[in-house]
Amino acid sequence: MVTTNDDASYRDPSLSVGQRVADLLGRMTLAEKVAQLGSAWVFELAKRDELRPEAADRLADGLGQVTRISGASNADAVTAARVANAIQRFLVDHTRLGIPAIVHEEVCAGLMARDATVFPQPIGLASTWSPERVQEMADVVRREMRAIGAHQGLSPVLDICRDPRWGRTEETFGEDPQLVAELGLAFVAGLQGSELATGAVATAKHFVGYGASQGGLNWAPAFVPARELREVQLFPFEVAVRAGGLRSVMNGYHELDGIPCAANASLLTGVLREEWGFDGCVVADYFSVRQLEDYHHLAADGREAAAIALTAGIDVELPSTDCYAGDLIAAVESGRLGLDVVDRSVARVLRTKFELGLFERPFVDESATAISAEVGSSAAARLADELAAASLVLLRNDGVLPLDPATLRRVAVIGPNADDDRILHGDYSYAAHVESLREMRSTDNTFNVPVPDDLDLDEVVLPAGTVRSALAEVLTGVEIGFAQGCTVSGSGTDGIADAVAEAARSDVAIVVVGDKSGLTNDATAGEARDRSSLDLPGVQEQLVAAVAATGTPLVLVHLGGRPAGSVAAHESAAAVLEAWIPGPSGPAAIAAALVGELNPGGKLPLSFPRSAGHVPVYYRQKRSGGRSHWKGDYADAPVSPLYAFGHGLSYTTFRLEPAVVGPTTARLGDDVVVTVDVANTGDRDGDEVVQLYIRDPRARITRPLLELKAFARVPVPAGAMRRLRFSVPVAQLGYHDEVDGNVRYVVEAGEIEVFVGSASDRLAAAGSFQVETGKMPVVEVTDKAFRSTVEIDPPT
Length: 796
Hints:
- By secondary structure, the chain is an alpha/beta fold.
- The strands form seven sheets. The protein has a seven-stranded parallel β-sheet. Strands 12-17-16-15-13-14 form a six-stranded mixed β-sheet, with helices on both faces.
- Helix 13 (302-312) crosses helix 14, helix 19 (467-474) crosses helix 23 and helix 20 packs parallel to helix 21.
- The longest helix has 18 residues, at 77-94.
- The radius of gyration is 27 Å and the shape is globular.
- The chain starts with 16 loop residues before the first helix and ends with a strand.
- 57% of the residues are buried.
- The model has no long low-confidence stretch (mean pLDDT 96).
């Protein structure tokens, strides 16, 4: 055992974090400092639940982070906790200073772990339009992470996505900066908790503009004008930092205007730290430090890559120490990099570790009883059920839904995704990453990840249940026929004849189509699985057309991470239900929605293009955008989306009474209140998402035709009415302009128009108000408002 300084001040929890950091930093050698900026894959350190003999050398000077004890293995929750404790025990007892490591995990749709609760992918979470539920989910993730010894989650994804060809669309909250910001803020609040000592570090990614890549291609350059960068791409990150106390940021892989994000000091230091006051850690997206040399060709070697990245503001290299090891030490010793730059990042890492309480509580209770109380609990499963149900979006319905089992003799269940449980899981799921590790070990190891032969990657065991089995549960007394028809991406059409025959002898055909999400070569969606077409993959379009030709009413159910399906496929269907990637709770929710036990209430968080040729399609267009002047439409198709941002149908009907806006004049510091009544005029209980948009009709710079500023998902009983009062701060209504030669956020005098409705294309003018700024036409805003608030009265 290494003897440590037991009387050292940094071990005294009564001292401030700053005092403890300063004391510990002053005791460290250069090698120990650099070790805190590095990381190691779990399989580099441990085999099953024991440390590898070679781990002693790897951990001798300490370690900053451990990469994915659960998410890069096939370990169950108890084993994961044991591994975490073994690594921490070595660091605490057998290194000179006894500094514990941060364990990070992926938490895109829940903790990416074998036994953890699986929630819908973020695009489905966004379709709930419910920040409150997203915060509840992140709180579950926090508890599950802490139970197995993890401390940092690599979410939320705050990328704005307006090109659904991009494979990572499913990981985003959609196209609108306000919606993304509010859902991201909720996720950060839930994951970090009331204090970090019992919370987990949230990591907003990918800073910044990653979802705006050219051609929808992963890692491609993004071309983003300066004002759009501020008001669209940066906005959700700004909200997370300045309103949410975000503790970590991850860079993007791409470049902006010739500068890779991992080397962009003006963003990582200038905007993030100097403007916004961020004082947490910036972690490198996996391998992105070395990519400054071998992908972007910005650096000559690893030494230069390390110096560039650390100087720009990348504090920790993930997923495994590469450039932030000997190369970084050499950069300091040669004078290429100042020791003060190293100390700056080490201090940030240590601060986070003290805030997490790692020095006082480095270990977790690894008993099965303690872990099962948090990981995969029944309460978490119920929340997953609720979120899957709330995420469903009814895109189209000619009256065929909901199905009435009493009137049905036989139902055909058809399609490649109808009887597949793997298809319910997204690219950042436990199942997908075990597949990815398997593929890297056998055929594709682009990143040179040292996946050992003794890593247990046996077949993944998924929760049982598919759409087919769930329909059998709810369609009691109804004959159910099944035909796969085709595979997700294959070219074989032999099965289509069976599907046609099955549909022809049935009263209704439920055709379940979509993607397989993952990172492996057989995936059609997910990271680096971008597509040039938005049609259904493989021969699924042929399958849909053939079934539709039978004349049997066709209900299309889509399981996938992005808008998909041709106009013809959608228009051939009597009803279309978008289920995204809902997790194992999805089949029961889908079946309940199809028979009316559940009334769909989700809304689209992004516009649904008619084809890839229409991209980009988004509602927040400028006056000169979104159409071909002077004719309007394309010569061969409308320019409008197939379904608009905010769209979603219900089995009941709603009426929004004319809204009232007041006061009619407001100044900076005031709130404008918009009051609206929403009535359920049907015979079923249901949820409506009331959406409030504004327009600045004349400004010093061109402004969007519509901007979402507030929303609320409201359950309204049949025949009842509820009143909503949105309070919109004037400080939320500005834009970025040049003031005294510098870009500043300002509010301009003039009229603001208000619109309220149930989708971006179903709005009613609510009125307007005047913003007064005194003698100046614009006023710089120093206390920016990020969101509106809403009060909702009980039903009457």
